[in-house]
User: Fold this.
Amino acid sequence: MRAIEGAHQWTVHFDGVKVPVENRVGDEHAGAFVMFNTLNPERVLIAAGAFGQTEHLLEMAVGYATQRVVFGAKPIGAYQAVQHPLADVRIRLESARGLTYKAAAAFDAGIDPTEAGTYANMAKYLATELAIDAADRAIQTHGGSGFDEDVGVIGYWERTRLMRTAPISKEMILNFVGEHVLGLPRSY
Assistant:
């Protein structure tokens, strides 16, 4: 199966495989625990990549809004309809960055994987939602040229959208938070 930008994905099956005790990772029948503990840093990395893309998209949008002049002598960044959404992205970027750092610190400190997973899930959720908003805002700020591949903004839409879905969807993160943080009944 082809993924984005030429990356490929495959399915690997281990049918009937016997693993000697000395080669096991973790305890028998506790593979899910090992897997989720392994996925926590992946979510932190995705969150970090998402807020990095947000920073870059914001720089692109602000640079354009500072230079593009219409209707006289003022750059479009002087208009609140352009300025306020970019300011909003910048404010939320600090929140995403802080939560991502907290998730990374929790993993590095070796705290309980469920707690570290909570921060990792929340960081991925917040940072990827923000990256999608930042991509959309950068496209909107650039206007029609935001769709020109040579300008370089439109390609981020696809990448940020993938981050929201893989390796765990925003809906599954909301399920996790609902069940493990809020104590609600399992929803799936």
About this structure: Residues 21 and 28 are 9 Å apart (CA to CA). The mean pLDDT is 91.
